[in-house]
Design a protein that fits this description.
Layout: E1 27-35, H1 44-60, E2 65-71, E3 77-82, H2 87-90, E4 98-107, H3 128-132, H4 134-140, E5 149-154, E6 175-180, H5 205-214, E7 216-217, E8 220-221, E9 228-233, E10 240-242, H6 243-255, E11 260-263, E12 265-266, H7 280-285, E13 289-293, E14 314-321, E15 324-334, E16 337-343, E17 355-362, E18 383-387, H8 393-402, E19 407-411, E20 432-435, H9 437-448, E21 454-457, E22 461-465, E23 471-472, E24 490-493, E25 497-500, E26 508-511, H10 514-531, H11 537-546, E27 552-556, E28 562-566, H12 569-572, E29 588-590, E30 594-596, E31 609-618, E32 624-632, E33 635-639, E34 645-652, E35 657-660, E36 663-668, E37 672-681, E38 692-702, E39 707-717, E40 737-738, E41 751-754, E42 762-765, E43 771-781, E44 787-790, E45 796-800, E46 812-815, E47 819-821, E48 829-831, E49 835-844, E50 856-860, E51 864-867
Helix pairs in contact: 5-10
The chain binds 2-acetamido-2-deoxy-beta-D-glucopyranose (11 copies).
Amino acid sequence: MINRALWLLGLLPLSWAIDAQGSVKSTVPGSYLVEFPMDNTSSASDLDAYMRQFSREMADRQIPFRFVNNYTTVFHGCNIAVGGEYTSLMSTLESVKVVATDTQMSSDAFTKIARRSLVENPPLPQLAHESTNYDKLLAKHNVTGKGVKIGIIDSGIDYNHPAFGSCYKTPGCRIQYGHDFVGDNFNGSNTPQPDDDPMDNCNGHGTHVAGIAAGNDNAFRGTAPEATLGIYRVMGCRGKTSTSVMMAALQMAYNDGMDVINVSISFPSGFTADIASFRTEAFAKKGVIVVASVGNEGIYSMWMAGSPAVGSGALAVGSSDPEFYWSQVVNITTSTGARTYSRSAPQDHLHHFNFVNTPVMVAENGGSNDACSPLTHSAKGSILVTFMGECSNEVKVQNAINAGAVGLIIAMRPGGDILSPVGLRGNYSIPAVTSHYELYSDIKIWGSGGNHPMLSSDEAFARRHNAEGPVIASYSSWGPGTDLSPKPDLIAPGSNIYSALPLSMGRYGIISGTSMSSPYVSGIVALMREKFPQGNVTEIKSLLIHVANLLRETLTSSSGPSTRDLGSIVQQGGGTINVENIMDDFGLTIENRISIGDDTEAPPENPNWRKFTVTLKNNTPKTYRLNFFHHVGLTITSYSDNKTYADNITYHNFPIVVRYQPVVNEMIQPFSTFTRTGFIELDNVPADKFYVVTGYNFFRIYDGNRYIPRQAPWMGLRGRFRDIPMLPSPGHQLAPMLYSPDGTSATSPPYSYDASQGQLPKFRFHLMFNCELILFQIGQQTGDSAVQYHAIEYMYATYARRNYELLDNPFYNFTWTGTFKVDNTVNTYKPAPAGTYFFSMRLLKPTAKENETDAFVTWESPEFQFLPAA
Ligand SMILES: *[C@@H]1O[C@H](CO)[C@@H](O)[C@H](O)[C@H]1NC(C)=O
Ligand SMILES: *[C@@H]1O[C@H](CO)[C@@H](O)[C@H](O)[C@H]1NC(C)=O
Ligand SMILES: *[C@@H]1O[C@H](CO)[C@@H](O)[C@H](O)[C@H]1NC(C)=O
Ligand SMILES: *[C@@H]1O[C@H](CO)[C@@H](O)[C@H](O)[C@H]1NC(C)=O
Ligand SMILES: *[C@@H]1O[C@H](CO)[C@@H](O)[C@H](O)[C@H]1NC(C)=O
Ligand SMILES: *[C@@H]1O[C@H](CO)[C@@H](O)[C@H](O)[C@H]1NC(C)=O
Ligand SMILES: *[C@@H]1O[C@H](CO)[C@@H](O)[C@H](O)[C@H]1NC(C)=O
Ligand SMILES: *[C@@H]1O[C@H](CO)[C@@H](O)[C@H](O)[C@H]1NC(C)=O
Ligand SMILES: *[C@@H]1O[C@H](CO)[C@@H](O)[C@H](O)[C@H]1NC(C)=O
Ligand SMILES: *[C@@H]1O[C@H](CO)[C@@H](O)[C@H](O)[C@H]1NC(C)=O
Ligand SMILES: *[C@@H]1O[C@H](CO)[C@@H](O)[C@H](O)[C@H]1NC(C)=O
């Protein structure tokens, strides 16, 4: 069974609370995004009119604000800075379609930068190409991306790097467009300091991404090595940005005429309708492909595809571990021979892991090898080996230093598939790297055999082979989208990817993450654009998705024996990119992606069956002969027996029957469409745990000479989507809870809060499923069982991400400050009188509309007494 890489936990700093703006996200204080109610028939003068109307309405309501960014193409609206909390008030303005808090976003790479000096070495070739059949594509088609513009929205680029021609915007230079929206010091929430220079010399992410898509330096080649680049810098040195800045960058990239826009940045929300999804469908309609990484939240289980990748127009890319990769290594020599193991870079670019014949030993600390307590032996002059987990990496390094070690190797958990450098908070005198579990287990055996293993390691990169072949990377976020959209669309090499780094950071190095997969695909999309300038977004996406290589998962099924079967499309989409045939028979496309929900048509004979239609469009002058057949994929769920949301996924191979009229030797004529309708029979899938079922329709298309591969994945949900639990049931340890006046849960209700003593009513809740809208109110007992509901300051939260059970504090907190909103059209509050109150929270169910009956799940707290301060 693939280990769902718990070790990643320590590397993902996340803290979520309802913040001062009433949002359940990390927001940018005082910054809001406003969308006007314009559609594709609106004109520029309509936009002006909305701008003026908006200014007027804001003045009428006496809301102080200023314009920060105006969005005039694709997205129509603005980014404003507002002094105070006016979200619900602004949402009532006539000129406003949507108002949203501005969200902080992070890059989807989690590997720190490895330093390596290549002054005396030529760069290495991109080994990921060997996993994607890139050379076979080039053997058939002379494509380099020449003449195609790729927009990279990232941390900038080191344009002095030879991989990009060591030039910037000069005639003939490959980088012809660029802007810095933020400056070095931007951290996602402070004031950006824009300028015209997108130089990246302190972060490295953008340079690496640009190298994967379009680098070109001797043997090192990105996927589109002659493409023209537009560099839009949205992250400073710290790798954080915000939705408002991203939108400004997307707008500029669009205005500069970028054909492909690459976004390796995400926020894990999973809602197409969220402004953080950037209205990618509008870009797609204008012919621009937004390629976006799906996120690195794989260990947090399903429904986590991030924004903007989840946007319906975006090509959402997850990550695979390639079959061949470059890695720095350690060699271990024993009296019986020598072995080589992959290693990560050290904790930062100031440390080096260079040793010659140095003793290496496993940490022993009181019956354990976790290095979490002081060692029971000296490690003086030796390299110490331990494994990930049980305590922080800082504790392990400090114990290694105290024992006299000169270096530390932290082994991954068994099956932990990528080597991420040890993220250490603080400065430590010795270098720490990670390696695979085998290094730890081997040294343990050798050491106990009285053998004295010795270690050698330098900075050089060695070619490594992943014996399992390409596999789905366990950190790659799982879909589907919260609207049941099949996401990700496909996966591409993202683990241990070698590419350019700023010259000041070592020139070349390895980073991992879905951030690395998405530029790989962006470069390929650029090649498609070069070859097929008239090709539309649907056709290009279809070819990439429907000829990819489906990967298998080795797994222990919960309802059957251990097996190896096609992985779920909810993690791999159409599979890992295989470019060999993407340019053959262009125009032979599968147009629909099949997502089955509870509203999908069922035939009269059986309500558990679901109808599907596959459409193959032949927009070529050729005639093809067609067969097709079906393979059922894995069924998965993230719910355990009592429906508690588990942060891990179980696999099942329930017998699912797919029935359609056999397709044998059917001819498909030039410029015609083939459709076939069938039924997916879900009788054998229990309806209780929201199983997500998947399968693949395989086409065998023959053109008289050869077979052309195409396959159409489908996915569906068994059960009523709307009934997915939002809150744990009463009595569960994670159920919503009112805090006692001293902020604990030591006593039981009823509670009485005295604001003059600094006591404010507060509750916590664990959100089990992403929620589009949460409404908060205060209920007041006004006599004989009569209740009045009051609006309060932070009335609602939108696009809330579910809490992760794996985190120490998997709750959102909500505090009431003791005032009521006078009404919802003016921004005035009055203190609540002393009385008996309760919290009321309503959560919108998946796909429900606010105005429908049965749209909300409601929770009400126990009653409490409240005494105002004065
Ligand atoms: C919520 O409040 C409790 C009690 O004050 C506190 O211990 C906890 O850290 C808070 N949680 C978050 C996520 O802010
Ligand atoms: C405008 O949008 C509507 C609804 O989304 C669509 O039906 C129509 O085709 C669009 N028109 C143009 C010109 O894109
Ligand atoms: C945005 O538009 C408003 C209204 O037309 C204008 O006053 C403001 O200067 C513009 N702001 C920017 C940053 O372009
Ligand atoms: C590839 O195309 C370029 C022009 O775009 C041309 O100069 C070159 O000779 C071609 N190479 C091959 C092998 O056809
Ligand atoms: C960003 O920087 C500002 C000002 O330097 C600081 O107040 C804020 O806390 C920082 N935010 C983050 C998320 O680091
Ligand atoms: C696409 O975006 C990702 C992440 O932002 C980046 O790594 C990659 O280089 C970009 N690719 C292109 C072609 O811009
Ligand atoms: C490690 O072993 C490999 C393969 O034998 C060799 O090429 C490399 O030079 C060795 N590296 C060190 C630092 O000993
Ligand atoms: C893309 O091209 C195909 C022809 O291959 C056409 O049927 C389809 O409508 C086009 N889609 C869009 C969005 O223009
Ligand atoms: C995953 O879920 C199963 C079934 O609920 C449970 O038995 C197992 O302990 C969980 N594993 C982890 C690592 O949480
Ligand atoms: C549900 O099951 C999990 C383990 O599968 C357990 O930890 C939890 O307490 C259970 N919840 C209830 C409400 O029984
Ligand atoms: C509910 O609201 C939606 C828009 O969100 C609207 O399209 C629909 O007609 C409304 N339905 C009813 C019954 O009012």
